[in-house]
Amino acid sequence: MSVLRDYATAVTQPTLPLPGLAGRDGAFTWDTAVRYDEVIAPDGGLRPAWKAMADLALALTPGELRRVEGEITRFLADDGVTYVTPDAGAQPWRLDPMPLVIDAAAWARLDVGLAQRAELLNAVLSDLYGPQTLLSSGTVPAAAIFGHSGFARPVARPGVVDRQPLLLAAADLGRDADGEWHVLADRVQAPSGLGFAMENRRVIAQVLPDLYQESDLHRMEPYFSALRATLLDSVPGVASPQVVVLSPGPHSETAFDQAFLANALGMPLVQGSDLVVREGWVWMKPAGWPRTAPRERVDVIVRRVDAEWCDPLELRADSRLGVAGLAEAVRRGRVRVVNGLGAGVLENPALMPFLPAVCEQLLGEQLRLPSVPTLWCGDPEARAQVLDRVASGDPQLLVRMIDEPRASLVGADAADLVSRILAAPYRYVGQQLLPLSQAPVWAGGADAHPRPLVFRTFALRYGSAYRPLVGGLATVRDGGDATPTTKDVWVLKATEEDADQGLVETAPPAFGPSIPALAPRALADMFWAGRYAERAEDQLRLLLSAHHQLEQVSSHHSPQARESTRVLLDALQRLAGIRFADPDAELRSLLLDADRRGGAAHAVVRLRDAFEGVRDQLSGDTWRVFSNIDRATRALRSGPHAHRTAESAGRMLTAILSLQGVTASMMRDAGWHMIEAGRYLERALQLCHLLVGTATRRRAFRADREVLEATLTAAESIVTYRRRYRGSLRTADALDLLLLDRDNPRSLAFALGELGTHLAAMPASTGSTRPERLREHLESALTDIDITALTAIDGEHRTALTEFLVDAIAQLEQLAEAVAHVHFESGPPPLALSSLDLIEERERA
């Protein structure tokens, strides 16, 4: 049974209706229209691009595709590939097994159109922020430009012309019923998708190796080399420029794409809070900022932050994503922003009707790649057409606002829509809906179903010309605002000898080695990553000990067993509070409830968040840890039995322990030292909390013995203790091992020693900073303690031990605050300029 044969039979039957939906980009709908199929020709045979691999393609069965689908899901999860939606947060990336395949002849025509369009947009951008001849000649109405929020007035300089303001452009394409490509939207503000496209290629190459190897297609790696070279050459006169990728942060919907790009280029991934403008130059903030002067200048910023958020001084005052003074640095020519701060105006759909005339004026050529038919309502004739079609309820017309590209007005009342257009006609366009081409999408059943497709392309300014990426990112949607399903895009070579991407590989430019300093924000993320990793590990060990003791209660029903179980549960609840009276439900909650502070699930979620902020610093193996934890969590949710709790906790613990192997391979830079500092600080804290909950009271002999053994197990010291003391269990011996033994990696003394080593390696450390002094004081106090006095009994309590542990916890928390003050950014948080008036009013009141 061949999936593609069945698909061919289905799509050559009389047209079946597809679910009606207006897409986010506003240029398509799903209906009963005749569509161009990307795989099957009208006669029922394969398109030319698929014929070259017909034998393998037609051999794909439902069983084979189910296997492939499962492997795709696993590989994407192991790589930590997510797409963040506003409502649901980070969602798994979706990749269809069947690629979009384009033959060499079809691509050649598209390649020319994409290169011309990128060159045209570059010329438009240069003109709009320079001489503005398009506006003065009336080729483009001024209202269409100045009425768009993407026009950045602070960087408009009529006397200064940047001939190459656009280094990277993207465009979303769709075919009409005849198979001709149209531009649905230009993406030049902060074009995303290259990282997702490369990840799709890596996964498909692994899960369909025979089909991939049989197809002689263009590899994508040379394009990333060309992009790196373009960025490094974009600042004339700078021998070894510092290039950074500016991200809105880990909660951006394309956070993975941004981190992938930074990793592939070998360039730091930064956030606005990592940069500062001084004397017109952009600098990386050093550790200990603002007490420490910046030393590392930034020359090129590849921005993934929309322009209006890039400078709270001149663009959007309430922004926390940008860099104050960036617009001034751009005006002075002291930093190159890719793409420029004003590039967003090119995403204006009101430009589309005028591009044919603009192309002839600026390039002296006819526009080769047409836009989707668009009517700008600022033009009286076009407005009249739009109003007539709105009034008649034309389903093939989509009305959009020019500066809200993702918002259409589908479903709006016709009278209301007419009044909106008449009130501000220059802010609206009407666009013809295309019956987009369809491609087979595997939905996990026995069949592949046709779904409309949008193709995102990319073009790079490489040398003196624009070079489109031979490939791209195809997207289909099954409805609503769900995470999109994507496809890898294969462009076949004309001959085996063709160079990949049409680029002859050249030796990379010779630059000296450079290890960019980490900003305070990145150091903070790594510090907390170390802390949460240790917190999750210690919580899981204690939980497993408590679960084991709970099983003993079920077996023996003795009062001593019940008491020891209660002690361990109390130790867990000391950190995470109480949510359930039932012990089994309580343990499951600690593993599953991410909103329960102090629990293992909460620590894992916060650990992932911390690592997302420094993804460019980490090995790809890091995300396998979370993938394994997610699988253990799903297994626990699906099984109500008590034994599943211990099983899932054990799998989570194994995953967390593997993280130490990943970080062990990191460079011994400030980031690694900060992870380790956080780890050992948290280890000391968790040990003290554990001992407060288990060792500060005397109990019945058997209960005391069980609690002490469980404590040593939770502290991963039971094997050492048994070998050293040959089965004898004494509180004094256990405390000696857990507090004072410098050879025991789980002891307080060992943790303080390692903490001192890692703090001393930090750039802002001097040997006498407050964190170093506090650590030394606590270490001295530990050296002076007398175990015999510490274990003395006062009634049922070990008062001296309690006082020491409580004091140690307070000192460790002070030490953590001191680390943040010295090594992370200090001082008051930034305020929006609009809030200053409120502050002044309060002060006057």
Please, what is the average pLDDT? 89
Q: Report low-confidence residues grouped into runs of 5 or more.
A: 15-30
Q: Supply the number of helical segments.
A: 30
Q: Count all strands and give the number.
A: 21
Strand composition percent: 5-15%
Biggest sheet statistics: 9 strands, mixed
| Cα-atom radius of gyration | 31 Å
Topology:
Elements: H1 3-11, H2 48-51, H3 54-58, H4 62-78, E1 82-85, E2 89-92, E3 94-95, E4 100-102, H5 104-128, H6 133-136, H7 142-146, E5 168-175, E6 181-187, H8 194-207, H9 209-214, H10 221-232, E7 243-247, H11 255-265, E8 269-271, E9 275-278, E10 281-284, E11 296-298, E12 300-303, H12 326-331, E13 336-338, H13 355-362, E14 374-376, H14 380-391, E15 397-401, H15 414-423, E16 428-432, E17 438-442, E18 448-462, E19 465-468, E20 473-476, E21 485-491, H16 520-556, H17 559-576, H18 583-592, H19 600-612, H20 622-638, H21 642-663, H22 670-694, H23 701-714, H24 718-725, H25 731-740, H26 748-760, H27 770-784, H28 787-790, H29 799-823, H30 836-844
Parallel strand pairs: 3-21, 4-21, 7-8, 7-12, 12-13
Antiparallel strand pairs: 1-2, 5-6, 5-18, 9-10, 10-11, 14-16, 15-16, 17-18, 18-19, 18-20, 20-21
Helix pairs in contact: 4-8, 8-11, 14-15, 16-17, 16-18, 16-19, 16-21, 16-22, 16-23, 17-22, 17-23, 20-21, 22-26, 22-29, 26-27, 27-29
How would you describe this protein?
With 845 residues, this protein is of the alpha+beta class. It is 46% helix and 12% strand. The chain contains 30 helices and 21 strands. Strands 3, 4, 5, 6, 17, 18, 19, 20 and 21 form a nine-stranded mixed beta sheet that branches. The protein has a four-stranded parallel beta sheet with strand order 8-7-12-13, with helices on one face. The protein has a three-stranded antiparallel beta sheet with strand order 9-10-11, with no helix packed on it. α4 packs across α8 (194-207) and α16 (520-556) packs antiparallel against α21. The longest helix has 37 residues, at 520-556. It is globular and about 95 Å long. The N and C termini lie far apart (80 Å). Residues 15-30 have low confidence and may be disordered.
